[in-house]
Amino acid sequence: MRTHEVADRAGVNAQTLRYYERRGLLAEPPRSPSGYRNYPVSALGLLRFVKRSQELGFTLAEVEDLLSLADGGPDSCDRARTLAETHVADLDRKIADLQRMRASLGELVATCERPRGDRSCPLLEAIDSSAPLAEVTR
Q1: How many Cα atoms within 13 Å fall on the side-chain side of residue 108?
Q2: What three-state secondary structure class fits 98?
Q3: 81-128 confidence digits (pLDDT tens)
Q4: Measuring CA to CA, which residue among 89, 90, 70, 95 is closest to residue 80?
């Protein structure tokens, strides 16, 4: 299959295929006599694996690890599980950070309900301040 056919069927663009080749995620395919890349059908499965991994939030470096684990071996499942558990812990930290940011912004927005004469804009003041947001919103 040519580049655009593989890209279309996998739901990526041609530049993504070339990037994955440069990164070593996707083997460089043989070329036709006219110089076109000629991808094997197996490239589709690999591209879908990469896309699904990214949809779960894995970085391309982690996807490389997952690809090597997908090749099999007795320790592959345990190593994949450890990688996933680490990723879940990272997601939990990011979610907690986002919840703190949301709470801080919510408190700042709530102060905008004060009568116009009794307020300046604490949201803009907090963003402009050099104090940590945790201190500004108290």
Answers
A1: 20
A2: helix
A3: 999 999 999 999 999 999 998 988 887 777 777 776 666 666 677 777
A4: 70
7, two tokens: 């890209």
- Pair of tokens at residue 26: 């996707």
According to DSSP, residue 73 is labeled: -
Tokens 């912004």 locate to: 105
Mean residue pLDDT of the chain comes to 86
Given a cut of 90, whether residue 75 has pLDDT beyond it is no
pTM score, whole prediction: 0.69
Distance CA 104, CA 113 (A): 15
Q: Any long-range contacts for 3-10 (C-beta under 8 Å, 24+ apart)?
A: 3/36, 3/37, 3/39, 5/39, 6/39, 6/43, 6/44, 6/47, 9/44, 10/43, 10/44, 10/47, 10/48, 10/51
Report whether 130 contacts 137 (CB < 8 A): no
> Any idea which residue has 């599980």 for tokens?
81
Q: Which residues contact 59 (CB under 8 A, 6 or more apart)?
A: none
